[in-house]
Design goal:
alpha/beta; 6-stranded parallel beta sheet; globular; binds thiamine diphosphate; 581 residues; binds magnesium ion
């Protein structure tokens, strides 16, 4: 080596040392922050432990869970509540797989979410040479989400995240997978160039204006109706155009039926609410306008017994054109974002839109009042052990007195009966199992909701449902979140009374330990545990928890015989012909 080249090399080294550098870790953090994504839900481990630490140091709120599935449910519900993608962060293979159920759930429910998982070395994974936590995660994620991306070069982190954000929130929102291999985090590049490579996503969910002809067609169909009905889905709640929806409903005078997570968009006590006359309005309506609601199993696919004999015409408002005619013919498809569609409908209705036929609205009102009156005495009993209605009567009062609280709800009977009994008063306050009826969303959603909104959360959980996510009670205590969990303890799935039909000493498949004390779990982590045996005790305990804001778990003792098989959807169970012999 000549002296000249040595000097040249020395000079280059000095230049490198003085040059400001950034790396994959910091570029991901900067890209998230640049796009206003300042909360991460996850579980640490190789290769993302340091990333979590650095993100926390950089001012991102990083919440560590006990299981990725629950972190994923928190991220998914954060997406629903904020219209920004909720971020879930996991390690490779097993952590990634644990997060995947939530990602698929987010996609099914149209919640924007990004699952970011660290992954192993591509070269080794692709040759299947047995790397640490080896798995081709991108390939596995693809069919379960709206889009999946992998970033291999630090310079592409900005673009990678921009693509993920757009895919998650634009059009029909959903889950997105972002694969970040371990090596990427340590890759260095010039800090200036790094900064320039970042992308601030402009107008991530662009407005989609409906065609004027589609609006006219919809209004013509609506005007022809003798027994019109509006169904509000969780897409309508997601849109956050609450005032416009209220105006449309009130201006039309049409009875409305909220789907589970659309409850409270207008209060359940609103004079036009047909929630308590559901079966009547579904059967007897002649024109049904769906706003952000799909004709899936939750609406019996728009046909069959539930919908009665009367011929129906459907108007459907949805951002996804493929949704139209998915189950039955849609007479008036209106494709666009809900805000734009509803605004156009209101405008098209003009100043003298005819009121919905009084014969129909009065009939709905009468039916609803009848049903409410029938239910009322059942909600007032103070039995011990409690039945569902007595316990839910107490919780119904709690939400009436605290309409800003967020209600999280899962289980079978605990879900179906709570949905019917507990009136909601404000939008996006009822969070539950969603389209799949998945168990285990409770603690993740409670944490996500408390973190994103700062509001108190009441989580009403079947004892089985709670078991899917119960360890996150520690997370709730660790972050000192204002979450009150009520476990509806009927000692089992649907009921606690089944016996082993084989006659052996094993318990039946649907029953749990009798007299279990779920309230004792939370004490281990410094939270408050309460045993409640009557509706009065339950009401007192929940009030105390909501007043104090302290993490609380109440074991509500429910009569093991009170529930029914699969709650309200027992009809979906396949039947064996042989069993009947
Ligand atoms: C992930 C998942 N696993 C299993 C089920 C099937 N399942 C439906 S409801 C339910 C539990 C119902 O029991 P519980 O939560 O105690 O409510 P209860 O009817 O007893 O009030 C189960 C296991 C499911 N929906 N999701
Ligand atoms: Mg149960």
């Amino acid at each position: 080596m000549t002296q000249a080249t040595t000097l040249k090399e020395q000079a280059r080294t000095t230049a490198d040392e003085t040059q400001e550098l950034t790396d994959g870790f910091h570029l991901v953090i900067d890209a998230l922050k640049l796009n206003g994504l300042t909360t991460i839900y996850g579980v640490p481990g190789i290769p993302i432990t340091d990333f979590g630490r650095m993100a926390q140091a950089a001012g991102i709120r990083v919440l560590s869970f006990r299981h990725e599935q629950n972190a994923g449910y928190a991220a998914a519900i954060a997406g629903f509540l904020t219209k920004k993608p909720g971020i879930c962060l996991t390690v490779s293979a097993p952590g990634f797989l644990n997060g995947l159920t939530a990602l698929a759930h987010a996609t099914t429910n149209c919640f924007p979410m990004i699952l970011i998982s660290g992954s192993s070395e591509r070269e080794i994974v692709d040759l299947q040479q047995g790397d640490y936590e080896e798995m081709d995660q991108l390939a596995i994620a693809k069919p379960l989400c709206k889009a999946a991306f992998r970033v291999l070069h630090a310079a592409d982190i900005g673009i990678g995240l921009a693509r993920a954000i757009r895919a998650a929130v634009s059009g029909r929102p959903g889950g997105v997978y972002l694969d970040l291999p371990a090596k990427l985090f340590g890759q260095v590049m010039n800090a200036d160039a790094g900064k320039k490579s970042l992308v601030k996503v402009i107008d991530a969910a662009p407005t989609q204006i409906p065609a004027p002809a589609a609006i006219k067609r919809a209004l013509d169909v609506l005007k022809s109706a003798k027994r019109p009905l509006i169904i509000l889905g969780k897409g309508a709640a997601y849109a956050q155009v609450d005032d416009a929806i209220k105006t449309l409903v009130e201006k039309s005078g049409i009875p409305f039926l909220p789907m589970s997570m659309a409850k409270g968009l207008l209060p359940d006590t609103h004079p036009q609410c047909a929630g308590a006359a559901r079966s009547t309005v579904l059967k007897e309506s002649d024109v049904v306008m769906l706003i952000g609601a799909r004709l899936n199993w939750l609406l019996s696919h728009g046909k069959g017994k539930t919908w009665g004999e009367a011929p129906k015409k459907f108007i459907q408002i949805d951002i996804e054109p493929k949704e139209m005619d998915s189950n039955v013919e849609i007479a008036a498809p209106v494709v666009g974002d809900i805000g734009s569609c509803v605004a156009a409908l209101i405008e098209g209705m003009g100043g003298n839109w005819p009121a919905a036929p009084a014969e129909w609205t009065n009939a709905v009102k009468t039916k609803r009042e009848e049903n409410v009156a029938k239910m009322a005495p059942r909600l007032m009993n103070n039995n011990s052990p409690m039945d569902y209605h007595g316990a839910l009567g107490a919780l119904r009062t709690i939400i009436k007195e605290r309409p800003d609280a967020i209600l999280v709800n899962e289980g079978a009977n605990t879900l179906d009966l709570a949905r019917g009994v507990i009136d909601m008063y404000k939008p996006r306050k009822r969070l539950d199992v969603g389209t799949w009826g998945v168990m285990g969303i409770g603690m993740g959603q409670a944490i996500g909701a408390a973190v994103e909104t700062g509001k108190p959360v009441l989580a009403v959980e079947g004892d089985s449902a709670f078991g899917f996510c119960g360890m996150e009670v520690e997370t709730i205590c660790r972050y000192n979140l204002p979450v009150c969990i009520v476990v509806f303890n009927n000692s089992g799935i649907y009921r606690g009374t089944d016996v082993n039909p084989g006659g052996g000493s094993d318990p039946a498949t649907t029953v749990f330990v009798k007299g279990a004390r779920y309230d004792k779990i939370i004490g281990a982590f410094g939270g408050v545990g309460v045993q409640a045996e009557t509706p009065d005790e339950l009401k007192r305990a929940v009030d105390a928890a909501m007043d104090s804001g302290k993490p609380t778990l109440i074991n509500a003792v429910i009569d093991p015989a009170a529930g029914s098989e699969s709650g309200r959807i027992g009809n979906l169970n396949p039947q064996s012909v042989l069993r009947k012999k």
